[in-house]
């Protein structure tokens, strides 16, 4: 069991260091050698902290945009509301097919569940952003969503239609 001295030696210390702009920036330090509980991972963490600190001092951005996601969002934002609704219906159909493949123990990629759910969430987020821009409240948004769900025309998703077409050709 760790004693109070071990815990205090393992604590993260902060020292104030002036930055380029003259304001005080907290420089995190980790006492690696003081405690046997820290391993190689913490040494690399301290190196990461110093690189983050140097980027704050130099003024370079800390956040790195994920290019692929940004491209997807730009593509989604270019779509009309009707296209977004139709794509969400298609993606939900894909999700249904994946669930049925899982239930019948057919071959499927389990990573597709997450990818499709995230795409649906992105599209619904863009749809809600547009509603907020128009001044639609949350209660009215839910009412519109219920009406939209009642009016959905169920049809097979494009991937299923393509697989049916391939089977007919054979």
Automatic annotation (TrEMBL):
Listed GO MF terms: structural constituent of ribosome
Gene3D superfamilies per record: 1.10.287.310
GO BP terms in the entry: translation
InterPro entries attached to this UniProt entry: Ribosomal_protein_uL29, Ribosomal_uL29, Ribosomal_uL29_CS, Ribosomal_uL29_sf
Keyword Ribonucleoprotein carried by entry: yes
PANTHER family in UniProt: 60S RIBOSOMAL PROTEIN L35/50S RIBOSOMAL PROTEIN L29, LARGE RIBOSOMAL SUBUNIT PROTEIN UL29C
Protein name in UniProt: Large ribosomal subunit protein uL29c
Naturally occurring in which organism (per UniProt): Ceratodon purpureus (Fire moss)
Lineage: Eukaryota, Viridiplantae, Streptophyta, Embryophyta, Bryophyta
